[in-house]
Amino acid sequence: MLAGFEQPTSGQIVLDGHDLSHVAPYQRPINMMFQSYALFPHMTVEQNIAFGLKQDKLAKGEIASRVEEMLSLVHMQEFAKRKPHQLSGGQRQRVALARSLAKRPKLLLLDEPMGALDKKLRDRMQLEVVDILERVGATCVMVTHDQEEAMTMAGRIAIMNRGKFVQIGEPEEIYEHPTSRYSAEFIGSVNVFDGLLRERQEDGLVIDSPGLKHPLKVDSDVSVVDNVPVHVALRPEKVMLCEEIPADGCNVADGEVVHIAYLGDLSIYHVRLHSGQMLSAQLQNEHRYRKGMPTWGDQVRLCWDSDSCVVLTV
Questions:
Q1: What would the mean pLDDT of 107-134 be, rounded to a whole number?
Q2: Structural domain includes residue 171
Q3: Which residues form the ABC transporter domain (predicted)?
Q4: Do 112 and 227 belong together in one domain?
Q5: What are the E-state strand segments in the chain?
Q6: Does the residue 183 lie in any domain?
Q7: Rounded average pLDDT over 133-137
Q8: Quick one: angle between helices 89-102 and 60-73, nearest 10?
């Protein structure tokens, strides 16, 4: 719909104060960069960048100036005469980005732009693309299924489910304060406990969960209805190893380590609780080899702070 290939059944598409709902795709100040880059194989780098400008029948001097500007922006001046097959994946991506920005669009659409790159190059290019977009001041809408990519590149994230927006917000807001179980599970890893409200206290809620022997205590002002099930979300990095049961008897669980995923700088412990429910805990590996650290088959006690949980009613 943004590009103009589908017509909205209701509402408007407004860009910079103008309704684009009935504007033809080729007349919209919008460009798109495809996952496959769609570079013309028979054209050089500079010819690819100049293509849209020639279609708009700009003056030769203006075309040359903008092509040089774009080559400089993406650091591809020395590759101007090369063809796409002579470039690396990252270089082809920069050419595609330069071509999409050459017409100075008011909105740039990116369709999973990093999907064809290996992980190390993808991580580097994410930051590079953000830097380029910030320098030209372009507004960008990017579609991606890579949550880490979205968190790295976006100023605002919109999570969609079945064609509807579930939550819109800044990356930190969506990660730390999800508004639904779907949002919590979609971004990052999360432990989720189902439960019912036991009591309301001045400093939060106490919730009983069938998966836990001890109650959950959550710093929350969420409106919870008695006898209506809720979900409590807890991120693995907020779970700690502990020896004693907390004084209030809340936010603690005992279980057996069934798997440890070593990821270099950190390890993720998968613990089976006595109820059978699995709980994940993420620990930095600076602690991994200290005496007394648990290993496979060990019984452990895990705990977490009351401000580490989020109560979800949907």
A1: 89
A2: no
A3: 1-187
A4: no
A5: 14-15, 18-19, 30-33, 107-111, 139-143, 157-161, 164-169, 191-201, 204-208, 216-218, 230-234, 240-241, 252-262, 266-273, 278-284, 299-303, 309-312
A6: no
A7: 90
A8: 140
- Cα Rg of the chain, angstroms: 26
**pLDDT above 90: residue 289:** no
Instruction: Select from 181, 171, 176 the least CA-distant residue to 219.
Output: 176
147 and 140 in contact (C-beta within 8 Å)? no
53 secondary structure, DSSP code: H
Residue 92 lies in a domain: yes
Q: Output the six-digit token pair for 76.
A: 């591809």
Q: pTM (2 decimals)? A: 0.87
Average pLDDT for residues 219-233, to the nearest whole number? 90
Q: Please report, for the chain, how many H helices and E strands are present, in that order.
A: 7, 17
Q: Which residue has the tokens 């700009």?
A: 58
Nearest to 253, CA basis, from 227, 231, 271, 233 = 271
pLDDT higher than threshold 80 for residue 293: no
Q: Let me know: does 260 contact 267? Beta carbons within 8 Å.
A: yes
My answer on whether 114 and 240 are in the same domain is: no
Q: Which domain holds residue 68?
A: 14-154
Residue 184, pLDDT score: 97
- What pLDDT, on the 0 to 100 scale, is given for residue 290? 61
Rounded to an integer, the average pLDDT of 295-306 is 96
Give 219's DSSP letter: -
User: What confidence tens digit (pLDDT) does each residue in 78-90 have?
Assistant: 999 999 999 999 9
